[in-house]
Amino acid sequence: MALSDAQRREVPLPLTSYEAEAAARGELRLIIRPVEPQPPKLSSMFHWEITTDGELVAVESEPLRYPESGPEGHRAGIRAIAQPGDVIVGLESFLRGEEPDEDGKYVVWYAADYLNDPTFFMFDVEPAATMPPEFARHRWTVERVECKRLHEVKEPECIATGAPVIGSVVLPALPGEINSLDGPMCSTGQVGVTQTPRCWFRETWGAAFPAYPRDSNPFVFLHWLGGE
Q: For residue 212, what is the domain's CATH number?
């Protein structure tokens, strides 16, 4: 059911540096965030699923003879940052003019547009978390929300989060073997050095969310974005 304008929320959200760069290229289609707090561990007979109203709930992995004896229907009370129909307002690192114009508006420059200009960062660039929502240039309507473990994030999802894909690579295989590397590759910023989208995502995730290391395989919410 579509939300009315009155029901639709605007959700200001600081973007990671790689998300801001992808948004500037027009390539950001997915925002992934850790589930906060992480839900409690369940026995192997149950698993967490996200409901249509965006809340984590424990469900049976297999039918049980006495389902009332387990945590069936137990709600974690944890919801995604934004729900389908909400509008995510992307906040990013920025630099504002010293004085507003006669209409009270500031000139705003966005750091993601000046990555190759070291002089830009000689100024007092403000972090994304401090950006006033009215300065934001990106707004996306959330199409759907999923929940999974971080290790379950697949290559197309890594690309959708902003992996800077520059082409595909196919290496010849030895006789009787399949290609050891076949698929899209990402820039590393070093000449002649590339990596897979999964490797790129693993490195960027660790830098962006050190409290939720990949080795801990945290639960994450996937917010799929519609048009701006």
A: 3.10.400
